[in-house]
Design a protein that fits this description.
Number of strands: 11
CATH superfamily: NADP-dependent oxidoreductase domain
CATH class: Alpha Beta
Shape: globular
Largest sheet: 7 strands, parallel
CATH topology: TIM Barrel
CATH architecture: Alpha-Beta Barrel
Helix content: 25-40%
Structural class: alpha/beta
Strand content: 15-25%
Distance between the termini: 26 Å
Strand order of the largest sheet: 3-4-5-8-9-10-11
Length: 312
């Protein structure tokens, strides 16, 4: 069995978690909406992840909605003592499956109670506030009112720790002035490197950074350079992309998601993958361009795509 302990650990809130975790978004149906085609398979994936040593699961009650959390409860409750379940607030689903903001203090409060009920918990270990000023990525705007709502829920004992998602560096700074922030979840991968400076700043402060879409989201990363490195080290391109993230900074916690046992095993095996210095130098260059998606695609053969506003 894969030894995911080789990837190391980092502190998340008041807990030590393994850096190779699991993201539960893909356990819901197509488009992260409705029930999965095979609920038993979804349960099996969760149970195998935990059996393999995963003790950090990322989820949200707007996955499904409600369904992913209900599957987590079915598969794992009563939960292992060392398992840290991290959830998110800030969005909701329309009847057509659309992704809509749910960002008011009242909506955030209802979201906490929805997560508690569907996960079968008395308190949420970590709640990430997802900023929803723009449907497709971080955008400036004050999150003071939202932080105040979560801090009040924290005082009531319903939320133990607060994180942020889909945020700008200015919003991270604003939130840290108001309360303790234990993690930041933003899009980051080989091709999308906007948060390089933020990752280093958070590492210096001992704060976890959790990249979503670590494999490129709904359109997986495609790069000749990535393929060439994978061939040289005897791994898949996706394993190399995950291994690069683990070596990018010690505060990075991974949550690759899948509904497939085969892909779960492939992802977890990246914890053991060693990347030679020359391979790391090649991979580092994939995203070090001018930041424009068109340039990334043209110059490095990496495809980027538009993603739903609340995905992982």
């Amino acid at each position: 069995m894969t030894d995911i302990d080789r990837a190391g650990r980092f502190t998340l809130g008041g807990r030590s978690v393994k850096r190779m975790g699991y993201g539960a978004m893909q356990l819901a149906g197509r488009g992260v909406f409705g029930p999965p085609r095979d609920r038993a398979a979804a349960v099996a994936v969760l149970r195998e992840a935990v059996a393999a040593g995963v003790n950090h699961i990322d989820t949200s009650d707007y996955y499904g909605p409600h369904i992913t959390n209900q599957i987590i409860r079915e598969a794992l409750h009563p939960y292992p003592a060392d398992l840290v379940i991290v959830t998110k607030l800030g969005a909701r689903r329309g009847e057509d499956g659309s992704w809509l903001p749910a960002f008011s203090p009242d909506e955030l409060t209802r979201g906490v109670h929805d997560n508690l009920r569907n996960l079968g918990l008395d308190a949420l270990e970590v709640v990430n506030l997802r900023a929803m000023f723009d449907g497709h990525g971080p955008a400036e705007g004050s999150i003071e009112a939202q932080m105040a709502a979560l801090l009040e829920l924290q005082r009531k004992g319903l939320v133990r720790h607060i994180g942020l998602s889909n945020v700008t560096p200015a919003q991270v700074a604003e939130a840290r002035r108001l309360g303790r922030i234990v993690c930041v979840q933003n899009e980051y991968n080989l091709a999308h490197r906007d948060d390089d400076a933020l990752i280093d700043e958070l590492a210096a402060a001992g704060t976890a950074y959790v990249p979503f879409f670590p494999l490129g989201g709904f359109s997986p990363l495609q790069s000749k350079a990535l393929d060439d490195v994978a061939a040289r080290v005897g791994a898949t391109p996706m394993q190399v992309a995950l291994a690069w993230l683990l070596r990018r900074s010690p505060n990075i916690l991974l949550i690759p998601g899948t509904s497939s046992l085969g892909h779960l095993r492939e992802n977890l095996a990246a914890a053991e993958l060693e990347l030679p210095p020359e391979s790391l130098r090649v991979l580092d260059q994939i995203g070090k361009l001018d930041g424009a998606a068109a340039d990334v695609g043209r110059d490095r053969g990496v495809r980027r795509n538009t993603r739903p506003p609340a995905g992982r």
